[in-house]
Description:
It is a single chain. With about 400 residues, this protein is α+β, with helices and mostly antiparallel strands. Helices cover about 35% and strands about 20% of the residues. It has 15 helices and 13 strands. It has helices spanning about 1-10, 25-30, 35-45, 70-80, 95-105, 110-120, 150, 155-165, 190-195, 200-215, 220-225, 235-250, 290-300, 360-370, 385-390, and strands spanning about 10, 50-55, 60-65, 170-175, 180-185, 215-220, 250-255, 265, 280, 320-325, 325-335, 340-350, 375-380.
Amino acid sequence: MRGAIGQAGVLQLDSVNVLCRSHYLPVFSRVGNYSRARLDELSWGAGRELFEYVWGHKAALLPLTTYPLMRWRMRAAERQVWDQELSPDLAVPWSVVVGMRRLTAERPGYVDQILRIVTEQGPLTAGEASPDDVRRKRSDPDPDPTTGKMWNWQDAKIAIEYLFSTGQVTIAGRRHFERVYDLTERVLPADVLNAPEPTADEARRELIRIAARGLGVATQKELCGGSGQAHFPLPAATGREVIGELVESGELIPVRVEGVKQQAYRWHEAKDRPIDAQALLSPFDPLIWNRDRTHHLFDFFYRISIYTPAPQRIHGYYVLPFLLGDQLVARVDLKADRQASTLVIPTLTAEPNAPDFVDQLATELHLMTNWLNLNHIQITASTSLARTLSRRL
């Protein structure tokens, strides 16, 4: 588990639970039938080895060794003056940006109130941290329509997420997957908090090293681009500068990838070897979370469909690509019906010219069923491929 997490560098978190929480799946893809309870312990238990932060790809779990590398970003958020132009080093949720601009003007001192409540009463959820129990109703107008309803947070949530971005509070645990916050010094080990803090330049170099080790070969956007393209986003000019330094040191080797116009870089320790992989991949797996990279390298056009209206979905709702060797050969729509203890396959689609994969997929589906503590597999898809898989199962 530690090796798989270290190699991936980041475990992205997502609330969708139709199959299982997304952060569990990359470890399953690499390790097989492991204990999710053990990963929970590593993430939120007393002997934690991971921590949550907003700037690891997106909301993500990261190894504790990464924590000192995040301190300069926390300081950038703490120094921010919200009525001025944002620092290019700032990478906090847009809800925090627009919310802090409003709170700074409308409710001065409110963030300090929230911090006092967490100090005196933590650990607690954002709702429990509200000093006056004032909450907007669903029927109330949104303070800032640009954030959309999903991200138009309550004031207490904005304030506590700002404190989280600055490192003053952190995630102590999850309650029904809702974040529970506490003072960082009460959650993370003292040796991590007291570790020497690298300079911003040193931290940037190490973060790109982590991304390069995980990806093997990647462009600048794939190493450090924004909008969910990379492990740790950086401003474009900063990314170019850091990559140039790593090229000069020999850690990144400039290469050309067939079919990719942009300059790519190979991590100097990456091995060119045959790939004997067999895995169902989370939509948020680091191998495929950059959809353009997935298209270029695997000739596999992939978009997650959970936000697509049902009539417009082509391959299903929660679709996992199936990796066989060095090819993505199929799309498998999966759902865990926990009440019936059944792994359900509503849709199954083979890629054009895919090799025979049915036996290998059947093996992975049995493995996943056992891992999720389910007893049955049910294929509701009605294609000939689905019927063939059903016979093999």
